[in-house]
Description:
The structure holds two protein chains of two kinds.
Chain A: E1 5-10, H1 14-24, E2 30-36, H2 39-49, E3 53-56, H3 65-72, E4 78-82, H4 88-93, E5 98-101, H5 106-119, E6 139-144, E7 147-152, E8 156-162, E9 165-170, E10 173-177, H6 181-187, E11 193-197, E12 200-203, E13 207-214, E14 217-222, E15 227-230, H7 232-241
Parallel strand pairs in A: 1-2, 1-3, 3-4, 4-5
Antiparallel strand pairs in A: 6-7, 8-9, 8-12, 9-10, 11-12, 13-14, 14-15
Chain B: H1 8-33, H2 37-56, H3 58-64, H4 72-101, H5 112-164, H6 170-186, H7 188-208, E1 214-215, H8 216-234, E2 238-244, E3 252-253, H9 259-270, E4 277-286, E5 289-297, H10 309-322, E6 327-333, E7 336-344
Parallel strand pairs in B: 2-4
Antiparallel strand pairs in B: 1-3, 4-5, 5-7, 6-7
Amino acid sequence: MNKHFSALIVDDEKLARQMIREYLQKYPHVETVAEAANGFEAVKAITELHPDLIFLDIQMPKLNGFEVLELSERRSGVIFVTAYDQFALKAFEIHALDYLLKPFSEERFDAALKHALEHLSDELPAGIVKKTDNESIERVLIREGSKVHVIPVDKIDYIEAQDDYVQIVADGKSYLKQQALSELESQLPEKQFVRIHRSYMVNIERIGGIELYAKDSRVAVLKNGKQIPISRGGYQKIKKIM
Amino acid sequence: MHPILSDKKRLLLYLLVWIGLSLLVTMLIRFAEDSPWINAAAFAMPLTMMFAFVNLSAYYICRAFPLGKLKLIYLIILLAGVAKLTTIIWIVIAQGWNAVLQPFDWSIPLHTAALMILYAVGMTFYLLSLAGHYLIITFEQAQKAERREFESQILAREAELRMLRAQIDPHFIFNSLNSISALTTNDPAGARKMTLLLADFLRQSLKLAHERAIPLEEEWRLCFNFLEIEKIRFGNRLNIESRLDEKAERCLVPPMLLQPLVENALKHGIGQSVDGGTIVIEAKRHDLQLHLSVENPVDDVPVIKKTGIGLTNIQSRLSAMYGSDAHFRSQINDHRYRAEIILPVEENHE
Lengths: 242, 350
């Protein structure tokens, strides 16, 4: 093997990073290009350095391991390293190469690395983390270059579809995220967010009232005065909820 | 066991009532037969007192034919039959007794009127006795059921308390073992130190978990043992400030009450923040109240809401042990989370 690989180690505990670095020492063709101690650093390192391999902790400050992958849109070359076994299923659903449970032996690490290097070039099924269970997300993550915004779903007023993007309006600010509205719809809590129009989804807690705008067409008036069109199907949905 | 025979006080009371009844029977006989007082008493009193004991047998009848098992009409016929039979036997004995009394000149004529009285008295007393015994049995059963209910409630609560007893987060153990594993190559002495700390912590928490209440200083030591381990894991990210009021040291607290708060502060406070921060642990005594508090920094990135099983657990334990005398409250102020427990002071008077 004369091909070289780059590796990123993400863990908020220094000792844990140190051990992976140590285990990697006997592989001269695998170079540790960076270490990250939290989610933000990890996203930055992944988008800037594009490492071949990522050793990724799950419970970390700022962002968890899954959120790091979502934001950096990275799927390949991921080996999770965690003390929690309950995320294993989710890890394999997003095609992680392996899942190391802390503490682990050097043999186990070697096996994971060997398997990982052999499968690095495998084609991965495209796609973003889908809502795999009934859990809905509690915060929406948006990346602008290397800057990351974390928006709690409670803060969102409404969301508007714009071509390949969605515009999320929260706390008077608006953010663009590259995602389909229907996908975001499936991730957000369905009791709180209603698709009232092909291009609009609204936080029902923000609705001040519904007004008849013309014959057969209505608008939702938000508490801050903003008006959002309601389609006929959307009106049926919102009538059922409110 | 017979409810009256087995209890001396009850038996005495029962016999006192029967002495009254035997005086009544004596009076009835005296006027029905117009015999002298002494004769009526000699005849009626021993006879009635004997009947007192015969009547106790009603208990076994009641036990053999519990209410609701037989159709009511059959039960009435049966009980009337038993009462009649018993009364007739009693009257035969009465006649015998009268014969015994004759040589002493204490007997009575024992005409139809007296026999009628004996029959009426016998039937009435025996039927009343049956009714009384049914009442006693029903009452005892209700009491027993109540006690069983109460006992099962206590058992359920104890089981709940055992369950609620805060358990150590296994991930803490796995993460610590991982740190030990990491230390072994570069810092064997550090690895050994951490192993010993972890062993100490586990041994202490296992021991304390069996106690109902422990002095606060012991819980305090457990928390600091825990913090020392976390200090190795988190390094400079973790700073600790603590104040333990001297008057609070000896107060008794349920074991593993403060530790989960410290653990939460580590997990959600220090563990979620990049630069870490300072945890402030305080124990103060205000007269008859003990105030325990743990404070930790909160990161500015909105944290995913936790269901807080640990905190609900603390609340249920407090209310199970102290009712409304203990409180738990938490608040976030200026990027600091503060959890506080207030509980009544209990001291060891050894």
